[in-house]
Design brief:
The protein has 341 residues and is α/β, with parallel strands linked by helices. Helix content is 28%, strand content 20%. It contains eleven helices and 17 strands. Strands 11-9-10-7-3-4-6-16-17 form a nine-stranded mixed beta sheet. The protein has a two-stranded antiparallel sheet with strand order 1-2. The two termini are 25 Å apart. The C terminus is likely disordered.
């Protein structure tokens, strides 16, 4: 994706966002839709944006249906917007081998059933640089599906680009991998560093073997390789539920995102629906965390108009461009005028 030109020759790199999807559970996919909607409606006003979805076979097969039902091909956006869907199924065995090698370096007798709590899709974030171009933009934001964006992403990108450290990744002090900005040009160093990192916390407790543990181990062993984001970009339920963080609007006045499950294993949508109930934070803190449900209840038709209302005067707007690929191959562009079968 090309850079945006502002004020003559001044160029801004595009914002890149990524999701990792595994399986086709309805609640999980419903969360993805809401997160995607929140990203599209908080796209920077003066940057292009590309969204990359790394999916296994089941999740990949669900995407065209989601894009058709939400009528994303009819959207007009202020700046060029691309959605890249990657079927990473052919690459999953290699990913598993590399992750296994990291964990086995710390537990020599590790068995073959090492994936616990989360699906393999949780590990896709660690391989983003193999599917996303490193030439058009340096950074990419990874989101769990139970995250909603609450402020324009320009604010986050400004924080990342202004810091002087050429960090491997950027996240909050709570070290939650559900919201992390990766350095595409350097993130291939994460797994090698993790092999030699400590997998024990300050109290000597060993981290469970999960994708988040790999990033935590690197953070603890190589703190100078990591940039810590402000608290408003680290709003994770499991880390800030305590009463000393209340009232949330006073303790955290500059909130850019909300992360609801924060490591929970449930695949039901946090905002409820046909098969589940609302997350207790939505019902107990309606004036703050309850706002996260806004994107769940906002109709896609209304969201489309909100995006269109931001198109520059005199501009026709930009139809969203879709690309589909399998493995680490080039994506096939699907014209905005063609139905996605």
């Amino acid at each position: 994706m090309a850079v945006s030109k502002i004020g003559g020759d001044h160029q801004l790199s595009p914002v890149q966002v990524a999701f990792g999807l595994s399986g086709n559970h309805p609640g999980f996919l419903a969360e993805f839709e809401v997160a995607l909607k929140s990203v599209l409606l908080n796209a920077p006003l003066e940057r292009n944006i590309s969204i990359h979805i790394l999916a296994d076979q089941e999740a990949f097969a669900s995407l065209k249906g989601i894009f058709n039902r939400t009528e994303l091909s009819t959207w007009l956006t202020r700046n060029p917007t691309e959605i890249h869907a990657h079927d990473v199924t052919p690459d999953v065995p290699q990913m598993k081998r590399e992750i296994y090698d990291v964990f086995k370096a710390h537990t020599p007798n590790l068995g073959s059933d090492w994936i616990h709590g989360h699906t393999m899709g949780a590990y896709f974030r660690l391989f983003l640089e193999r599917f996303v171009s490193k030439t058009s933009a340096k950074h990419i934001l990874y989101l769990d599906t139970d995250v909603v964006i609450m402020a324009n992403l320009e604010a986050l990108w400004g924080l990342v680009e202004r810091q002087q450290l050429n960090a491997l990744f950027h996240w909050g002090k709570n070290m939650c991998s559900g919201f992390v900005v990766m350095n595409l040009q350097r993130m291939n160093k994460i797994l090698p560093l993790a092999k030699g990192s400590s997998f024990t916390d300050a109290d000597g407790t060993m981290f469970p073997f999960r994708d988040q543990s790999i990033l935590q181990a690197v953070n603890i062993s190589y703190p100078n390789e990591v940039n810590i984001l402000p608290p408003g970009w680290d709003m994770t339920v499991t880390e800030i539920w305590q009463s000393n963080n209340h009232p949330y609007d006073k303790k955290f006045p500059n909130v850019g995102m909300l992360h609801f499950n924060g490591g929970g294993s449930s695949k039901e949508a946090y905002f409820g629906g046909e098969n589940g109930s609302e997350h207790n934070f939505i019902t107990e803190f309606k004036d703050t965390w309850g706002n996260g449900k806004f994107y769940a209840t906002l109709p896609w038709e209304w969201a489309r108009y909100q995006a269109k209302s931001l198109v520059r005067p005199g501009s026709k707007g930009h139809p969203i461009q879709f690309f589909f690929s399998k493995g680490m191959q080039g994506g096939q562009n699907i014209s905005e005028s063609e139905p996605m079968q």
